[in-house]
Amino acid sequence: MKYSHNNWYKKEGQASFFFETSALSWSGEVPPQKWMNFYTRVISKFASDKNLKLKVTIEVSPESGISKQSIEETTIALRELGLNDDINTEESKSE
């Protein structure tokens, strides 16, 4: 369901508004310069909800390639965060 102002209501005597839905989802790209704002303005509102799920896809392909050291550092960082450290890589294609 798309957001609509018609879905908002205010309970009598309460200052806050409630949305008449049981779930919310969004999919899109967030540019690097907006990651912190995205967390602050969007994710943090739901961070304490045990049902919050955040799915992340990282795709990076710099023209200069990615060093084995960067891959190893990324794998270690993911592992230290308790996340899946299975990284998919593609070999450079020589022309």
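[next item in queue]
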Amino acid sequence: MNTTQRKHILFLTRWYPNRSDSMFGLFVQRHGQAIALYDDVSVIYIHPVNEKIHSETVIQHHKGLHEYRLYQFQKKAFSINSDYLSDSL
């Protein structure tokens, strides 16, 4: 009789299937599914979106795999043009 308790594993990932690309990070999802056969797994994935709309969280649970996909508006980061840098040096 196996008396060991299931562990809870947390994935914080930059790659995960999302509504824009179902293949993006598919290997991470499959890894989580494999581990979920033996332990509980939670995945947190934040996907930047360009639309200035409300943030959205999509939560799915299936056979020990708990997925939390957060779609969050991301402001464009400030960047310096490399041509400007080379001209000013």
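[queue empty]
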